Amino acid sequence: MTFFDYFYIIFGIIDLYIVLIGPIIDFLNTKKCLFAIPFLTTVILFSRTLTPNLSPYFELFLIFIFIYFISRRSLISVCLSLFHYLFSIVLSYISLTVLEYFFGITELSVGTNYYIPYNIFLMVLFILSTYLIRLLYNHFVGKHVQLPTNLSIFMLIYLAVCALLFIYNYTYEESLGFSQDVVKVNTILFLIFFSITGAFIVVLMLILKRDAKLQAQNVQYESLQKYTEEVEGLYQNIRGFKHDYINILTTMQLYMENEDWDALKEYYATEIFPTSLSFQDNSQVLGQLSQLQIPEIKSILYNKCVKALELGICVDLEIISPIEEIAAKYIDIARVIGIYLDNAIEALQEMDKGTAQRNLRIAIIKNTDAVIFIVQNDCKDFQLNIRRLGTLSYSTKGKNRGMGIHLANRTLKPYKNIMRETNYSNHVFTQSLTIYNQ
């Protein structure tokens, strides 16, 4: 093997790692990212030694199967890698066209005289494009849009066909000795084709993002509507109770004047005590939520509290002062609080229903400097590594869990004025957010 062959393989491994693994690095843990390096090395050495003519097809086939099985979001990961692979081909052709147009350096000359500096330049270009692809993904898809499975499969097939056509075109160009005219034609074709594909995907993501936003708004509207209905129902109960109040006192007075204590006890048990139950649980939650003037957070709190009450969990909600605004996007805080409450309710469900400790405590405290959200729940005894909580490879629920806290941390990451704390002591787990005024 010549010196050139060594560098050809080394650059091939590095480029493929950057192009295919770089965009999906958020979906992989450290071990899987490191394991990808020897895997790529083995695949490239094997394919280029045994099947040199079919090596690009063979390499991509094995690599994408590898990505599918090691990634958390399998289909979207393969689609993202394929999309960046196509983008990298377009970037390569654009760079070759620029070199020929401005410096008179042909593709054949690049492969013989400028191979190392050109590949170093491509590596830097691919790193920048990787960052760009991840940025675009987080903006258009990220945690806001859940791609339907059939749409993901369609995109996968479409991008795979595009990749095969791109590879076939390149191998055909190679068979012609890298004719500069063919390079120019391919550059134009690839650029037009990729632009159309990219525009189609962006428009599709915008539509899905809009639909996801509309669905979230509908859920919020339904929650607020249900909340309003509950408030109206509670108000009617209070009016009814007020109307009967004089009659109740008159009847009780009659029993007491006659010293008919047994009848008084029976009257209390059958008429008064059942009425008092209608003002418990939901009324306490509704009464406290009247202090919260942020619809996005109010709706998520109401939904989760009602869900917990329906599961037989004791809910204690405390909002002492009126909360009219916070120094953060309301939908972000609602999402994070929703994740905290889901985890708390799940932990409480795992406890025996017969136990006395099945309590969910929620508090929103406002002071001069900040608004503090506290979610506290009883839980079973477990070992907790606070530092690792929120990483994809760690969860108190077992392997391949912990996605919620990871998403919550990612949501809060851009905020410099938010401090989050996690504590566990004596079978009580506490999550708190302190949102400082800006």
Helix and strand run: HHHHHHHHHHHEHEEHEE
Beta content: 5-15%
Mean pLDDT: 76
Number of helices: 13
Flag low-confidence runs: none
What's the N-to-C terminus distance? 63 Å
Structural domain tally? 2
Strand order of the largest sheet: 1-2-3-5-4
The beta-strand count equals 5
The global form is elongated
Structural class: alpha+beta
Range of helix content = 55-70%
What does the largest sheet look like?
A: 5 strands, mixed
Radius of gyration: 31 Å
Please describe what this structure looks like.
A five-stranded mixed β-sheet has the order 1-2-3-5-4. The chain has 13 helices and five strands. Strand 2 (359-366) and strand 3 (370-378) form a beta hairpin. It folds into two domains: 3-216, no CATH class; 289-436, Heat Shock Protein 90 (2-Layer Sandwich), CATH 3.30.565. The radius of gyration is 31 Å and the shape is elongated. It is 67% helix and 9% strand. The protein is of the alpha+beta class and 438 residues long.
Summary, kept brief:
By secondary structure, the protein is an alpha+beta fold. 67% of the residues lie in helices and 9% in strands. Helix 11 (295-310) runs parallel beside helix 12 (330-349).
Give a topology summary.
Elements: H1 3-21, H2 30-50, H3 55-70, H4 74-103, H5 107-113, H6 115-140, H7 149-175, H8 180-257, H9 261-277, H10 282-289, H11 295-310, E1 314-319, H12 330-349, E2 359-366, E3 370-378, H13 403-412, E4 418-425, E5 428-436
Parallel strand pairs: 1-2
Antiparallel strand pairs: 2-3, 3-5, 4-5
Helix pairs in contact: 1-2, 1-4, 1-6, 2-3, 3-4, 4-6, 4-7, 4-8, 7-8, 8-9, 8-11, 10-11, 11-12, 12-13
